[in-house]
Specification:
The complex is a heterodimer of chains A (about 120) and B (about 120).
Chain A (H helix, E strand, L loop, with lengths): L3 E4 L2 E4 L5 E7 L5 E7 L5 E9 L2 E4 L6 E3 L9 E3 L8 E8 L7 H4 L2 E2 L3 E5 L1
Parallel strand pairs in A: 2-11
Antiparallel strand pairs in A: 1-3, 3-8, 4-5, 4-9, 5-6, 7-8, 9-10, 9-11
Chain B lengths: L2 E3 L4 E5 L4 E3 L2 E3 L6 E7 L6 E7 L7 E2 L2 E6 L4 E6 L8 E8 L8 E3 L3 E6 L1
Parallel strand pairs in B: 2-12
Antiparallel strand pairs in B: 1-4, 3-9, 5-6, 5-10, 7-8, 8-9, 10-11, 10-12
The chains are: A mainly beta (about 120), B mainly beta (about 120).
Chain lengths: ~120, ~120
């Protein structure tokens, strides 16, 4: 079955540590996104990538880093510079160019990773 | 500035009745897309319905319909015949222009509770 996987589901980090959240998709989608969700809030964009080896900062990129070495993978590193990293992190992907209609526009989401800083 | 506003933090509806969740948006783009997602307590984001800015007909997907009023910049979600399983958070989102990455801007969400 095609879809987006995120691991781990729950992650605990000590202050001062870097952690990496995994996001993998087998949908052959070109674009991938990382969002952060705080309790009772909507999602905010951290980083996005429209093609391999290229990515752009979103609205809240400070303290985060990403890479896009393969089309299928878009890992997110939460660095020690992120002051308040406890949140729910969602990865999403979108088909890309050349199509039209709702299926093209729709972003598919992974199940998410809950990160807690101890 | 591009923004999505959901003014109803929580809503209650009786099972089998219809409910409308409000969403207004702000953008100066001519081309944009509007989405509704459902988020149950498990956290996954489930796509419900999509409306393009140039679509003249209101979108419908089963029990979900989107009441799109472009001049008023509103995109309300109507759920007909509510079910207990509809209890969840609902988010309205706007897709920005593709040359800006096609990112989604989300509202704060509405928590819907369906009563038996």
């Amino acid at each position: 079955d095609g879809g987006i996987t995120q691991s781990p589901k729950y992650l605990f980090r000590k202050e001062g540590q870097n952690v990496t959240l995994s996001c993998e998709q087998n949908l052959n989608h070109d674009a991938m996104y990382w969002y952060r969700q705080d309790p009772g809030q909507g999602l905010r964009l951290i980083y996005y990538s429209q093609i391999v080896n290229d990515f752009q900062k979103g609205d809240i990129a400070e303290g985060y880093s990403v890479s896009r070495e393969k089309k299928e993978s878009f890992p997110l590193t939460v660095t020690s510079a992120q002051k308040n990293p406890t949140a729910f992190y969602l990865c999403a992907s979108r088909p890309g160019t050349g199509l039209s209609g709702a299926s093209y526009n729709e972003q598919f989401f992974g199940p998410g990773t809950r990160l807690t800083v101890l | 500035a591009q923004k999505i506003t959901q003014t109803q933090p929580g809503m209650f509806v009786q099972e089998k009745e219809a409910v409308t969740l409000d969403c207004t948006y702000d953008t100066s783009d001519q081309s944009y897309g509007l989405f509704w997602y459902k988020q149950p307590s498990s956290g996954e984001m489930i796509f419900l319905i999509y409306q393009g800015s140039y679509d003249e007909q209101n979108a419908t997907e089963g029990r979900y319909s989107l009441n799109f009023q472009k001049a008023r910049k509103s995109a309300n979600l109507v759920i007909s015949a509510s079910q207990l399983g509809d209890s969840a958070m609902y988010f309205c989102a706007m897709r920005v222009a593709y040359n800006q990455g096609g990112k989604l801007i989300f509202g704060q969400g509405t928590e819907l509770s369906v009563k038996p």
